[in-house]
């Protein structure tokens, strides 16, 4: 959901938009994990902290499958919109959300 909310904060109040975003962690991630397991492939999944908080089981499944969970911000807001202090807080919150679920973060990809 966070991609759409990051683009337009009002999307947080639009159930149709949110349901599209929930497809990824609820349906697509399990299917992708099964496919990767069938072929013995490991992958990297870059996840925003807020999405990790909304869908912790998806993150735990990614980790359990031996895949990398990378840091993708907290709110999926472009870092160009932040002051230095806001960006620092965004990075800390995202990192905390992921590590609390057991992710060993080694990579970062800006949502910009």
Write a brief caption for the model.
The protein is mainly α.
Explain this structure.
The chain is mainly α. 54% of the residues lie in helices and 7% in strands. It is built from five helices and two strands. The chain has helices spanning 2-7, 15-38, 49-54, 56-64, 84-99, and strands at residues 44-47, 68-71. It has a two-stranded parallel ribbon with strand order 1-2. Helix 2 (15-38) packs parallel to helix 4. The longest helix is centred in the first third of the chain and has 24 residues, at 15-38. It is globular. 25% of the residues are buried. The mean pLDDT is 92.
How are the elements arranged and paired?
Elements: H1 2-7, H2 15-38, E1 44-47, H3 49-54, H4 56-64, E2 68-71, H5 84-99
Parallel strand pairs: 1-2
Helix pairs in contact: 2-4
Radius of gyration: 14 Å
Distance between the terminal alpha carbons, to the nearest Å? 16 Å
Give the structural class.
mainly alpha
Biggest sheet strand line-up: 1-2
Helicity range of the residues? 40-55%
Which segments are poorly predicted (pLDDT under 50) over 5 or more consecutive residues?
Answer: none
The rough form would be described as globular
């Amino acid at each position: 959901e966070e991609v759409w909310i990051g683009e337009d904060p009002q999307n947080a109040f639009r159930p149709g938009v949110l349901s599209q975003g929930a497809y990824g962690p609820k349906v697509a991630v399990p299917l992708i994990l099964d496919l990767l397991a069938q072929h013995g492939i490991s992958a990297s999944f870059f996840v925003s902290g807020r999405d990790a908080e909304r869908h912790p089981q998806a993150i735990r499944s990614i980790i359990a499958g031996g895949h990398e969970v990378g840091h993708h911000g907290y709110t999926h807001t472009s870092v160009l919109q932040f002051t230095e202090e806001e960006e620092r807080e965004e990075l800390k919150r995202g990192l905390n959300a992921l590590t609390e679920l057991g992710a060993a973060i080694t990579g970062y990809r800006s949502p910009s």
